[in-house]
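Field reference: sequence -> structure
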Amino acid sequence: PNDPNYSEQWAHDNQGQAGPGNVGDIDCDMDTDEAWDISTGSEDVIVGVLDTGVNAHSELGDRLLPGYNSYNNNYNVNDSYGHGTQCAGIIAAAGDNNQGVAGVTWNSKILPVKVLNDSGSGDQTHLANGIQWATDNGADVLRMSLRWTNQVSLCNDAINYAFDNGVVSLAATGNENISTIGYPSAYENCIAVGGLSPCNERKDYYSCDNESFWGANYGNGLDFIAPCVKIPTITNYGGYTMEFNGTSSACPNAAGVAALVKSVHPGLTPSEIRQILNETSVDLESPGWDSETGYG
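Structure field:
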């Protein structure tokens, strides 16, 4: 794609350019540049972004749908915090439009669901209500870059409701560098996405990106890891950032891939999509699943 900042997007095509510092292992990426030869996404696939809201941006255009605010029980999805908009850009910023960055799925639509307040706080009750609303309003994929340490049956029930209605749920594992993944990623019918450094390793305090202040959570329930550090994306004020980090960025990368799979095979169930994502991950540690990197 001709997007000016595409050359910095190692998650699509890693040539050792993750910056600053130009680090990374060649081909430690999602191979999205190869996937685009098959599909750049379908306008029939809707990705629910359950977060702090999503602001309008030229990279999203009319693919940003009207949403819902479950935190305040209204339809104001303005994102003054910025987190949700950045995640939406990773998923679906327009590609090959000679502007900014390229998302993973260029044609898919974004359904914003504001489940957190303007400080990025909230609870799983608001999340559960948002999951149900998104499921009832056409979402095919749900992306949740948020984490709590406790189980809430209402939220688990909502994810099961989405699952039963053919909706794929993905959530971030968290950024504390501990061997316990958070909720909702730990719920049975939610895909748990950890963090990949640019050097074929779990993002931790000592990974090659030199961000020694955080690491991706891992352990039982982890499905796989995805690019999570120095990720270029859009911002809530209409511009761009070249360094959005955390498993918050890994999860939308993976959700974008799930949307591409759904674009090519719309009839696949959530279980089948999860199986495809796991089986096509590149194994990194001991053969098969391991607690550090999941399936790869």
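Note: The first strand starts at residue 46 and ends at 51.
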